[in-house]
Amino acid sequence: AYRNPKIGYCQSMNILASVLLLYTKEEEAFWLLVAICERMLPDYFTCRVIGAQVDQSVFEELIKERLPELAEHIPDLSPLSSISLSWFLTLFLSIMPFESAVRVVDCFFYDGIKAIFQLGLAVLDANAAALCSSTDDGQVMMILSSFLEHVKNEENPSPPAKSPQSGVESDQDSVQETQIADLIRDSYEKFGGLTVKQIGQLRCRHRVQVLQAHEDMTKENALRVVTPDVSLASQELGDVYDLFKTQYFINCYWGRTVTALQLHDPSLQYVEQYRIDRPQFKSLYQLLSPWLCGVHTDAVAHRTFTLLDQHRDSLISFKPFAIWLDTMYCEELNEKIRLLYRLHIPPALTEKEDDPSPLKTPLLSTTRPLYVDISNGEMKDYQEQLKQMLKDLLKDKEKDADKPLPMMNQREFIQFCKTLYSMFQGEPNENELFQAIATVTSLVLQIGEVGQRSQCPGNTPEECAVQVDDASLTQGGAEAPKQTFHMDNADPGGQSSQAEGEWNVTFEQIVASLLTEQSLVNFFERPVDLKAKINSAKLNQYHERISLLMIQDS
Questions:
Q1: DSSP secondary-structure letter at 47?
Q2: Which of 32, 33, 246, 512 is the most buried (most CB within 10 A)?
Q3: Would you give the distance in Å from CA 282 to the centre of its chain?
Q4: What is the pTM of this model?
């Protein structure tokens, strides 16, 4: 594990090392083990034992080719492969008497893996008649286990140890013993035509199939873990996973000089095996996000990655990525605004962050009244509607008390408004959306100023009430009844995040203000065709790979 961290430790290594230590010095045993693990049995001793699975697939093909009658009677050879896996991993040391197994090890060091394939075929050939008459997988395992336990070395006449599970007959003594020398001789006489070159060619062909099967299993398990947390259709979620993984491969193998091991760890859970960094995420954001913000897109993507980077290791896995995408495409308006809100408060937005966007900060004033172009008779209904929405939102927050959102200060709110302005650019009803967000901005700024002027000493944050002058909500400054807004000053840590005289607004107040403008509601609730985005992203990734390959070839 110290010499080659990629290999680490595999369970069968102790069996091989213990035998080597019996016959060689410690340093010699170490270098023999290195030769076995790194050259003679490549990729055997890893967390996924890819090399061993490849050789089992090769062994199945050799059975069909060299023992066709057996293959005909046992169409499904996977049980034989499961049984023979230990033959290859331990070089027969774990299933043969020790005195016989060391002779197999001698052949392995002389002829390599070819000797193990030949011996495995010879074992099956010697038991072909019994195997063809077997009725289930358990009987197959008993036949082979009993045979191998009775492989004897004539140079050491001591009888092999008997196992209570071995043999298909009740009388163990009736099992005929086989000399290891005869078994090895038969393996060379009957199957000696197998060459190392042929094995290498078969390994290359079956390796692709084994790796693809592993990738399919990884994808299936990752989707199984993520599906309960999202509303995306299964086909769309699978396509998103493929795009996520493809973006990882593009940057690792065709783009930047980042080794695959830095971002891919097969020892992790399936859903966390592939992880992408910030540049990779920004590429996917451009391809899949419905919230493109023009020149401001890079800044929003940057904050989104920071928000999703839960472990603060500058990498995100597929699950948070899928949940983020599901929020934008499938969640209700309240959750979409919650996501936007979180993108403009710490940790996504920091005090030290320099806004790279060339957009100018919009001129926002809290001194001008909010004019609503409706009759005075309808104004009361509007105010009552707004108050009711705030009450409903506060009730919802009580249900979500385990995950409260901190309040937003004026700098963060201005960044929030800039993002909305940039999202609306190029929309068919752009002017209507700009007017709507200007109206909402004025209302929220006034709410924040009222909260800045009004403090309630002696009361808890939930008990604080702010009296807002409804003259600012009437046309031309006409007098109107007072209305009450509840100011929630609690942060996630349970401490007040609003200092004396500081401008702050809550998530509930922002949502309630946005709900007063139907054009904004329509914008966030309109359906977006994710399938079209996915198809366009696939085409984009294909052209990106082609261009990178052309650059490498030039």
A1: T
A2: 512
A3: 17
A4: 0.74
